[in-house]
Amino acid sequence: MDRDASWKVITEQRIALADLLDGLRPDQWEAPSLCDGWRIRDVAAHVALTPQHPGVGAMLAGAVRARGDFDRLNHDLAVDHAARTPDRLVAELREHAASRRLPVVTTYRNLLFDVLVHVQDIAIPLGVERAMPVAAAREGVQRVWSMGWPFHARRRLGGMRLVATDSDWTAGAGPEVHGTTEVLLLLLTGRTAAAQPRLTGPGCRSL
After folding, report:
1. How far from 86 is each of 20, 26, 49, 89, CA to CA, in Å?
2. What is the CATH number of domain 134-206?
3. What is the pLDDT of residues 158-167, one digit of tens each?
4. Tens of pLDDT, residues 25-45
């Protein structure tokens, strides 16, 4: 997928997330997401904040408070933004859906898989089906497999062969693990518990 096609998917996913969140009960906003230690409202705030992300100075100040821990910094920024009302967060997702502004530490390729996975982080705990576009999910698994930090997918999943059942993507060597490209992207990004029931093959015993 080229840049414009990737941004089109990012826009569509932001709007789809706004539609999903619109009308949730207060207790659903407070429910755990697939991300450990993140509520659904925190993940929603993270996605809403991305095209409005603070500049370099604010990021550096936040990094000092987080003692250089990028995951903690990301979490702190999301939790701060999550103090907004649900209606405000939904409105921000729609208002900035087509924005191409990027945080200083990432690229549109990373943002593509990021928004795909975060929609699932919210949809799956709510019991809502929101299928990823297969072509975009394939871009995501290839990107995550090749990038190393922060997921270290090749190291974590070494010794098995991952085979997508709905695209031409494969990676690794060893006992095979079969799943849709969407489910493999969840696996590669550490959502193992959510992915595992939808995977098949002898390599699953190693997960």
Report:
1. 12, 8, 13, 5
2. 3.30.1050
3. 999 999 999 9
4. 999 999 999 999 999 999 999
